[in-house]
Design brief:
Blueprint (H helix, E strand, L loop, with lengths): L7 E2 L3 E7 L4 E9 L4 H18 L3 E12 L1 H15 L8 E5 L5 H13 L4 E4 L1
Parallel strand pairs: 3-4, 4-5, 5-6
Antiparallel strand pairs: 1-2, 2-3
Helix pairs in contact: 1-2
């Protein structure tokens, strides 16, 4: 997979990512609002497919530069987490989220999503 497949470059929102021999990382930055909705859904799907193809056991989701995520975009994150939850154990992978504790919404929202998938999600502060 090309890193371009994980790249979104909108005016106020962007992502970049890598899926290489050892790891998978997706950096999400800016404002995830209605303008980012379809692109975010696409990038989560591409990331999921690439991680499965590579056989990785962990994805790092870097939210340290994400300033806002509306509920519609958050639902795309939950849908991706649910796809991972439904995988057989031999192909499943963990999700480690690097958060920005200065963003109050991240503390609340990411704790809630962690409760949804306790065995899959780790939150780093």
């Amino acid at each position: 997979m090309s890193t371009a497949d994980l790249q979104i470059d909108l005016q106020t929102f962007n992502t970049s990512g890598t899926v290489d021999g050892a790891s998978a990382t997706l950096v999400v930055a800016g404002t995830a609002d209605a303008a980012a909705l379809l692109a975010l859904e696409t990038v989560f799907g591409r990331l999921h497919d690439a991680v499965l193809a590579a056989g990785h056991k962990e994805v790092v989701l870097d939210f340290t530069r994400l300033t806002f995520m509306n509920s519609s975009c958050f639902s795309k994150l939950i849908a991706w987490v649910n796809r991972v939850r439904l995988l057989p154990p031999e192909t499943s992978y963990k999700i480690r989220i690097r958060s920005n504790q200065k963003q109050v919404w991240q503390r609340r929202s990411l704790q809630a999503i962690q409760c949804f998938a306790v065995d899959l999600i780790t939150i780093e502060t």
